[in-house]
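anyone seen this seq b4? input:
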Amino acid sequence: MEFLLLGSLAVRRTGTSLELGGPRQRAVLTMLLLHANEAVSVAQLTEAVWDSPPVSPESNLRTYVAGLRKVLGDRLRTRAGHGYQLVVEPGELDLDSFDQLVREGENALADGDTEAAADLFGQALARWHGVPTAELNAGPLLRAEFTRIQERRLTAVEKFAKASMELGRFDDVIDRLRRETALHPLREEFWAQLMLALDRSGRRSEALEAYAAARKHMIEQVGVEPGSRLRQLQQVILESRMPSPAALNAHRQLPMDIAEFTGRESELRRLCEPGPQTTVVISAIEGMAGVGKTKLAVRAAHRLVQRYPDVQLWADLHGFDADELPADPSAVLESFLRLLGVPGGQIPESLEERAALYRDRLTGKRALVLLDNAAGEDQVRPLLLGGSTCMVLITSRRTLLRLDGARSVFLDVFTPAEALALLARIAGEDRVRADHEAAERIAELCGHLPIAVALAAKRLARRPQWTLRDLVDRLERGGGLGTRGVFDLSYQALPENQRRLFRLLGLHPGEDLTADSAAALAGLTAYEASDLLETLLDEHLLQQHTPGRYSLHDLLRAYAVEQVMAAVPPPARALARRRVLDWYVHTSWHSAQQLNPQRRLEIAPADPAVHPRTFADRDTALLWCDTERANLVAAIRDAAQHELPEQSWSLAQCLWDFFNLRKHWAGWIETHGVALAAARSVGDRSAEGRMLITLGIALREVRRHDESIECNRQALAIFRAIGDKSRQVPTLNNLGIVHMVQGRPEDALACYEQCAEIARELGDLHTEAVTLNNIALLHADAGRFDVALSRYLRALEIRRDIKDPYSEAILLNNIGEVHRGLLDFPKAVSYVERALETFRAIGDLYGQAESLDNLGLALDGLGDRRGAEKCWLESVTLFEELGEPRADEVRSRL
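predicted toks r here
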């Protein structure tokens, strides 16, 4: 069996998805999978399934277990007195595969193999296909479990980004971090990594824009400036210096104080009281979510700076974040040690050694350490200091009873007076004073919870025409408390056409959207959708970081999903999803026609309500693909997950030229693997073969040659079985290329000869030219340059007739190599310069890098060493930008 948790919950037997029942039954299965091969008690299952359980949950649970047994058989066992146990074999659960790959990546890092580590982290992250079991109505325990595994993913993202940047693979890092910062805009480490990746890839202005976006999120959502790491990074980039460990050493890490801080005077006094003179001072602020623990800790820390002026360190330990897992104290110590000036190569591996070095570095220093959102004592203990000149401030939702020497400050919800003070500070004292009774009622409806009071007050501040009584009426009609009540207030106040679009946005794939894609989703014109989106933006239900592009905050996205699932029947949801996917497929088809007019692509007609974009030229098509890449990848997954396989493979094949041109190997392999599975799920043999071809090409490009050969052999068998000769041609050609790369020229030649024979039979000039090029490569590798040149020139003649600039550029570069082999360096320079000009015209960075290397060799043969070195330097820069190992080979020529 195959158990899938990292996305929509699914169980498959021999590739067939099994029926798992309703939301609560699926919640039971999810809890059992999260504790696979362990006994899960009735009490645990009850807390996992219900917020408010029924009178006799045991009876309901027995019904759900019985339903699951019909599907899972004896895998689901009753453990007398202990509950239920689900037996899962090694390799069956995707979460286990993810954890194993992450461990292997960490081991590779420990061994100094950064490239293997990056690849392993990338493979681990590819196991995720959405928010885990987002369709469930989970209880508190299950939500906590989701938080735990989500943190594991985000930590893996950070490790992947770090390793990839060390390898110079900036494109993949930038794309992934753009998605993650959109989903988790308050996670400063993602913004820091994104800024570094953009700056190091030469995109300084975009790095500064990322800082501006991060700052906007921090101020609007939390009311604080970014931390000192981000601020210093911004300064480094503004000064046009590459960030270095020395530049980033920061002993003063406290977040900015909050201007809207209100109340908590007695708690502040207690936190700022002098402690014992002989031991470190440890103060723990404890309380429920949303009561303002962090704001209080930051305010106290800033008051204490004069007492601890030497060093101030801060870390968010992510103990209870909805999308995070608790921070590893070893990783926190590594960050602290770097900030304290310890070079990365001198930071020890073990937790104990890091903690010892950390304490040593702060010995005798007047240091303040703020540890926010701690999960528990075990997470905090290695981060404590030993000197009497130091203080540690901790915030947590738990009572840290086992933390020796800590003094606790319990923080409850606001008193009525404190809630009113915050309301007045944000919405205006005059308005609160004008209707004191209504202000008290607003505070009461917000449960006196600081975060809810702040949200309600900000809504009032943005609606100066409202009275406080207006807000009371709206909150009371919504019947909700806290953030949910504020969301309900905004949503229910919208007219139906705006509500409809907002909830449908919960179905939109990817991280952001445009008026065009929203129009397809809702069956509107782009003008109508644009008008509605701007209204939702005015209502603060949408965000806009780039003109024309809109996104949902992660909490509002979850709210939109909840609304669409509750208010829109399944057939209507399916139609909306099909429309937006059709829009992506057909717009991608139009882009593909610009990127490679020679390639024939057949796709099904779109829904009549869908109006795809068209492109006037190649550049605008390429820009659209670059801008929409994250959404396009998400759309392929979304189509496969929601039983729209044709949209999945159609979109994948439309994007092949884009992935190939930009060398986005990871996205290429991921999407075509998803599309291949979608084709197989419905038994479409032709689509399966097409996906095998393009997947095989990508695997060849990343040097996974055995897998590439297997893909091509499977594709060839399919096309022979269904009698499709036109598809046999590219399959044989691709198979020959892999054999050639592996150093098996005879096998390669046999494939090429079969390919050429079928191409001539079909009158396929394009493939004949490709095959002649590859046959010539074999002769050139064997030193038969005259034979190779004749094949190349014939292929070039064909290429000029069919006008394929990409393939023509490859031929020109290859002809230049042959002339070098013949020691005719002037002709070599002439052909390679033409190749380079074409590669630049079509925006192929890899082709530019390769031809620059070739041009350098030709110039060197002419005795122009300075010109050669200039070409090689530019080639190295491009190869490094693409993360290509060939950069080292070219660098060795300098």
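The radius of gyration is 30 Å. The first strand starts at residue 2 and ends at 4. kinda curious what u guys think
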